[in-house]
Amino acid sequence: MPSDVQYQVMWNRLISIVEEQAQALVRTAFSTSVREAGDLSAGVYDAEGRMLAQAVTGTPGHVNAMADAVAHFIRRIGRQTMFEGDVYITNDPWEGTGHLHDITMVTPSFRNGVLVGFFACTAHIVDIGGRGFGADANSVYEEGLYIPIMKFAERGEVDETLTRIIRGNVREPDQLIGDVYALATCNEVGHRRLTGMMDEFDLADLTGIAAFILDNSRRATIERIAALTPGSAAGEMTVDGFSAPITLRVRLTIEADRIISDFTGTTGVDKKGINCPLVYTKAYACYALKCAIAPEIPNNHASLAPFEIVAEENTIVHAVHPAPVALRHIVGHFVPDTVYAALDLLLPDTVPAEGAGCLCNFQVSLRPRTDAPAPAHARRSEVLTFNSGGSGARPTVDGLNATAFPSGVMTMPVEATENAGPVMIWRKELRPDSGGAGTTRGGLGQYMEVGAQEGHEFDIQAMFDRVHHPARGRRGGAPGGATTIARSDGEAMRGKGKQFVPHGARVLMAFPGGAGHGDPSGRDPAAVRRDLARGYVSAEVAASTYGIDPATISEIQARAEAGDE
Amino acid sequence: MAYRLGVDIGGTFTDVVLEAEGALHSVKVLTTYAAPEDAIIDGMHKVCAKAGLVPGDLTQIIHGTTLATNALIERRGAKTALITTKGFRDVIEMRTESRFEQYDLNLVLPEPLLPRQRRLVLQERVDARGEVLIPLDEAEVEALAGKLEASGYDSVAVGFLHSYLNPVHERMVRDVLARRLPGLSVSLSSDVSPQMREYERFNTTVANAYIKPLMASYLGRLRERLAAEGAGCDIFLMHSGGGIISIESAAEFPVRLVESGPAGGAVFAAHIAGRYGIDRVLSFDMGGTTAKICLIRDQSPKTSRVFEVARSYRFKKGSGMPISIPVIDMVEIGAGGGSLAHVDALRQIRVGPESAGSEPGPACYGRGGERPGVTDADLVLGKLDPDNFAGGTIPLHPDRSEAALSAHVGETLGMDATTAAFGVAEVVDENMANAARVHAVENGEDLAGYTMIAFGGAAPLHAGRLAQKLGISRVLVPPGAGVGSAIGFLRAPFSFEATRSVYMRLAEFDADAVREILQTLGDEATGFVRTCAPDATVETDVKVYMRYTGQGWEIPVTLTPEQAANPDSNTFQALFDADYTRLFGRPVAGLDVEITVWAVNATTPKEAVAAIDQEEPGVARNATERRALFDPVSGAFVDAGVVPRGEMVRGATTDGPAAITEDETTIIVPVSMRAVAQPDGCIDLTVREAG
């Protein structure tokens, strides 16, 4: 039997293996969402389907979803029909990771003919057919091709019927098939490394190392929970939604060995595709709690188990088939702020104030202008961008400027975006005064201005929230700046949905700031002076909100003009 | 007669190596932060005295330094402004808009090199095809020049969108500033790093501008001081790509000096690889706080186009700032002799990146260090002799190591001090092994069949075990391992790599345009080398970075001179398919391929390396004494021989388990290996036949 020291080494090794698995996917993927933004995950499981390790990637949303997925695969495929060389696939929103745009693939790992474990990975692909990525569908049937849990390959033979069906149903077939192969390759990388490890330590199965990992993780997580004061508190938050506001409600109960998040009372399902399957709600609730309570304990079956999630069916956090769910990330990204509203009452001075929450993503569909003859070089193109507002102020530090939270994805470089299609980004910079005032200030949002190259018009698919419901401050902190969106020719625009932009016009957007924490009067005057010198706050706000006198303001501004603080 | 001096300024020591008539002389002196040239002068005199020479005899000085890196880490640069496109003032602050650590609610992102008030904008715009949409108004530039002057800036970085395609506006700013403010140091993004992706390009340009006045002044002073001390010979600088450039080029592009020390180490290892005719080498450099791992194929270190400096958060990817310049591709992790161990909430032993440094040092130094470091584990496991550490100058205290290991690791985990030491050593070795494996996989390499070349103070203690973990069956430990980087400087060719981003799909391949791009880059790169070596032969290596249209990661594809001279899309496609398959298993059929970046490296021919006559195992060298050494494979102490390295003369052979001791370090020969002394002084460890 391996020693404790050897088990320690093996646990380290498994974590390294899944990171490598994820890295292989980033390097070979075609979708910008995977390769530039890091919207993917990868994990290793024991023969029971219990997750032992997961790569830390850009998407907390995949955390629990991935942890549960393999059990569904075992149930649907059946152990007796699993063979060496098999690869399984699905994009089931309820048994995978929440919408049809996430493809999950699972590969059984065999050793000497015996099934010893599984590798799974998930990637967000840019198109799955249907209406395209957006909130406009009325049911999941309109959102694209549905692939039930099935074999992509059996004993090494790819199911060509399946690949032909996939190719025939999506807008970018090469890209999607390329991504499916990248997913299969990434599991294969994991399998090879696992085999190497089992050879090195002479393991016949993963039973011993699984017990070591799960026992230690369970014990450590429960120790953290036991150290908290038991109790119960409620939190809620209202956001824009698609056509009517949504209220997310949670009751958080800390017991000796578990934490229950009960979302009873949350708004019902929406007609449009911003509904969230429970698995995705669970992922973000769990992520929020782990950040606050047990940040350094890696995600696995045992460390996630003590975080229990309850919600009523047919609410927006527990949408069931066939509700439309394509933009489930919008609600999902607001779950942490809702959970923190309750947790702040139980565990003071730990969680941040509300932030921008959901990512400020938009997709533009460009085409040659139709109002007048278009130049010969004009073309059609789809360009997706990920952008972030400000994060909420923390009890002891300011919020992060234009940085994603809770999502962890990256933005795309402007030069790369402009190379992807005839789009023009005219502005992308910080938005002064959008960080909510407080003892600690909310992170700044950002301005963006988007248009098309000469000769083009476009539709913009907006996926913004916090137009009518800016981030709320905590303990006296002020709200963050609200989202605004307008057209340069004066036409009004909405925060969500597909909207036309004629030739020559631009869309002017201001993304939300994070809220402040604590009363602004308690802010360190040196921090206010620094903010003023940098232009994070204007002279008006420095005077009216933070009470800096006019002489000091002039002096700081003169120094800032010369580049100094 | 050539008398060449290699000088490496490191964080603690300045290493000076003199090569005279085939012999190497070296000294280590403490780095003098206030005036780094003082240590060089001191070291030069000492090493000249050793060799019986005077500074006037020196024919060439090759210098590498961490000063540029340190200036960036410690934020000691000039008052610098960034001039950029209106609407994009905050590119270097907004970074990738992501958090490099997902679970830390109190994460703080590193501050950009320049605060917001030092980032100034001009109305102008070039599009992604390189066409000017909004022309830059010269009067606005004039007005800005007035402001720069009034504000007392010493240095300016200029970075406009898409300037890698069309630098006309950046050059206009340069021309106006040259006329109006001739004393101002100016760095253009289209010169410093002409590559797509504005964050990396602007940041690299800002870093260059930020350290330019400091480095120019230092290099000027150094030249004067050396001349005053009688060393009037040429001085060249080691750059991060593993070659050397003139002092003038270094002063113009000081950001290329970042990481020049570790680059010297990789060149050192590559040179040894040449001597032994080995094509696949893992260079392993382990010092007091970090370990650096680099792959060397066909005696050339792997290179990359971007890396990160000044990581602020446990060496974590993304916590530093990206610098996109040609660089030797290395992974650096927080694993060194001083790295400290603790037990985390999961009852897992963790090692590093926190380090005890030299003061107070690990517990065994007896200088007040309470927490156990890797050196403590090594001592308890019998790898170090407490009475002969650093040639006996630093007495070690095993009892303090045991106490620290018990208190901080053993008690929590119910382990005795020995098992705790075993755990710490295994964890640090596993951390390094994981880093090496990931690095190999990222480069499409399998480490089986690789040879490890180990140097740096702590490497010989860990190399044997690391090799076992990686399935590597041969380890070379060269002499002079403590000053490897400085020796590497003496082995480096003159070289300069010019790169440019120009997108071209193979479906729209334009052979004339390709020839022109490569010609321009070749001329630029060759020009830099010619300034150093006007009469030498200059070779050019051409690399293009390719990917499937739609992918985000390019892979480097190397062209032969013939392929570069007669560019042809079928050849490019075939080369890409082969390299892609090697890296990722299979090509993706039916997709168009594009070229994104073009690179030409001009270099003088590598110094011819004489192959050595390798020794077979010869006379067994009997141990002078014996000690108990822990064997990690069996998990128990074994009786090991101790042999001073001085007695390992050519052909001398010692079977493991053994410790080969020297002043600077100890080479641990695992039970499964045999050590043979080679003619050049390398200790050659190989797996011996069972039985």
TrEMBL record, chain A:
Residues 471-497 are annotated as: Disordered. Transmembrane segments: none annotated. GO terms for molecular function: 5-oxoprolinase (ATP-hydrolyzing) activity. GO terms for biological process: glutathione metabolic process. InterPro entries: Hydantoinase_B, Oxoprolinase-like. Residues 5-520 form the Hydantoinase B/oxoprolinase domain. This is 5-oxoprolinase. It comes from Pseudaestuariivita atlantica. The lineage of its organism: Bacteria, Pseudomonadati, Pseudomonadota, Alphaproteobacteria, Rhodobacterales.
Automatic annotation (TrEMBL), chain B:
Residues 4-179 form the Hydantoinase/oxoprolinase N-terminal domain. One of its GO terms (molecular function) is 5-oxoprolinase (ATP-hydrolyzing) activity. Residues 535-675 form the Acetophenone carboxylase-like C-terminal domain. Residues 201-494 form the Hydantoinase A/oxoprolinase domain. GO terms for biological process: glutathione metabolic process. Pfam families: Hydant_A_C, Hydant_A_N, Hydantoinase_A. Signal peptide: none annotated. Transmembrane segments: none annotated. GO terms for cellular component: cytosol. PANTHER family: 5-OXOPROLINASE RELATED, HYPOTHETICAL 5-OXOPROLINASE (EUROFUNG)-RELATED. This is Methylhydantoinase. It comes from Pseudaestuariivita atlantica.
